[in-house]
Amino acid sequence: MLQAVGEAMFQAMEADETVVVYGEDVVGGAGLGEPYEGAMGGTFGATRGLFRRFGASRVRDTPISEAGLVGIAVGAAASGIRPVVDMMWSSFTPLAFDQIHNQAAKLRYMFGGQANVPLVLRMAIGAGLGAAGQHSDTLYSVYTHLPGIKVVVPTTPYDAKGLLLESIADDDPVLFFEHMRLYNTRQEVPEDPYTVPLGSASVTRTGADVTIVGVSYMAKLALEVADTLASDGIEAEVIDPRSLSPLDTETILGSVCKTSRLVVVDESPPRCSIAADIAAMVSEHAFDALAAPVRRVTSPHSPVPLSPPLENAYIPDAARVESAVRAVLNQ
Amino acid sequence: MTIPDRTLLEMFETMMTIRLFEERVTLEYQRGDMPGFVHTYIGAEAVATGVCAHLSDRDLIASTHRGHGHSLAKGCSIAGMLAELYGRETGLCKGRGGSMHIADFEIGMLGANAIVGGSIGLATGGAFAHQVKGTPNVSVSFFGDGGAGQGILYESMNLASIWKLPVIYVCENNGWAESTPASYSQSVEDLSRRADGFGIPGHVVDGADVFAVYEVAAEAIDRARRGDGPSFIEAKIPRISAHYVGDTQKYRNEDDLADARKRDPLERFRSELAAAGLLTGTAVEGTRAAIVDELDRGVAAAKADPWPTADGVTDYVYSGAYGG
């Protein structure tokens, strides 16, 4: 998936010279005459090769200044260019929260539609690296709460490339969440540029017995659990929303009306979260279709811990998802 | 520096427009039919005027919660601003923003901003866009001594200095951040000294002297247009108006207010132009009458203009249909 993300940025920059990429370590040494081969190219390597192709004006390393990076992205986007900013980890975005919430999200509205704010903030998310409290958050629910912001959560390499190209072309601020445990996922993707629309969920498995909505890495986990359950004769329908704002409520509601049962899997704390939001939306609009209460499988209401046994307890796993599915099926 | 007579007279008209606009808005706000909060620019007129006199519509500015003066100096229409203050659909921002969020992107006004220091990232980003696009334009961030307390200023100045962005940071130091005196919240006399730490030229100027502001702005803007990078201008201005309309200023002593009034930039400029034989009393009255007439018409039109309709509450949140 990492390569798909890099390819999307490369192709967006080829197609539109107003697309610029900057952030901490996105060049990673090569800007100062160091050999290209050793250049860091982003914390995970997604931006490797961009500097060599597009040069120092459009691909820039930055100091560690999250508020400044996003503030400048907002002003630059409102002035006619398309910044793609590498925020490194979502846990670092609260340093720029004012710029995201009070500036990026609100400019178009406050100014009566005058402002276009076409910027993308890319960031890694997720527990599982032993990176503890200040590197492992998911945070997409926090930003889904904010009117004016769009939130994208790719799960597959195909979607990552298509959604990132779509996000860069979008005229609104997009926060693009890349789960670091998905970076090594392998899948052939088309070489040519293509887009995947925002607000369009992907039904990754069809089934009539229960609907499982999984966000980001949890969509992959949900699919694995569904395959296990199939051997027990339980046919689960798995939905990957792909974007949380906008959210494809139609696909989720349609599926629940068919299966009458819903489990939402989300690697985030449970309060005021996307899992809570989807559960509420389904209760509001498809209550009569439900044969059992909606179940949520989430992280606990806690920061992400370091110690492996604790971290494993934090991240929703297959056993918890399976048990929730069996619960809504009264098994 | 010799300033052409025509420019001087235009600047006088701009300063007088700002003063009369603010006096009128104060009056109308006190009548109670203007929603929200209003912060006036009285006493600071020379700063926006002296800086914006150098800018074209393609140059950018970003402003503060006290943004009427910057808006007028950049060329926003009086009628559009008044309709916005009254929250009408015909306002510059269709009634979604009001006094603290006036913007006109057509003429490079990136908006008044009610987050203290909110202009700083925006204007720096505007300068970044100019640089990437290779256009010979500049960007100006207006903020106050209060805004100089925000971290975004220092992150932005660092980025602007390493990238040599065409941005000018204009700090309007009126000595007060709401009710907190600058003498309490800063340990140096001149905020411009902080620019030294970023290798940015820092200037101090009497912000009540439009000649001085014009001159220092010329130097900073020329430097930015040449590609030599950012500058910082600290304009010391008298706080003649209160923090907001309705602020009783009981925290402030009489002498401080009286001293501020003695530094009235408009009266100073008027007497300088009169002494130079450029402006007669008749001409001043003629200008005043024309502005008052425009304000009368603007207020009447704004009050008669349509409100936004309730179904428009989610218009402009996103660029297109949101879905979901």
Descriptive keywords:
heterodimer; A: 331 residues; alpha/beta; Rossmann fold; five-stranded mixed sheet; B: 324 residues; five-stranded parallel sheet; 12 helices; 7 strands
Shape verdict of chain B: globular
Low-confidence stretches of chain A: none
Q: What gross morphology of chain A would you assign?
A: globular
- The number of distinct structural domains of chain B comes to 1
Structural class of chain A: alpha/beta
Spatial gap, N to C terminus of chain B:
59 Å
Order of helices and strands of chain B: HHEHHHEHEEEHHEHEHHH
Number of helices of chain B: 12
The CATH topology of chain B is what? Rossmann fold
Strand order of the largest sheet of chain A: 2-1-3-4-6-5-10
SS strand fraction of chain B: 5-15%
CATH architecture of the largest domain in chain A: 3-Layer(aba) Sandwich
Major sheet of chain B: size, sense and barrel closure?
5 strands, parallel
List the total number of helices of chain A. Answer: 12
Calculate Rg of chain A over CA atoms.
20 Å
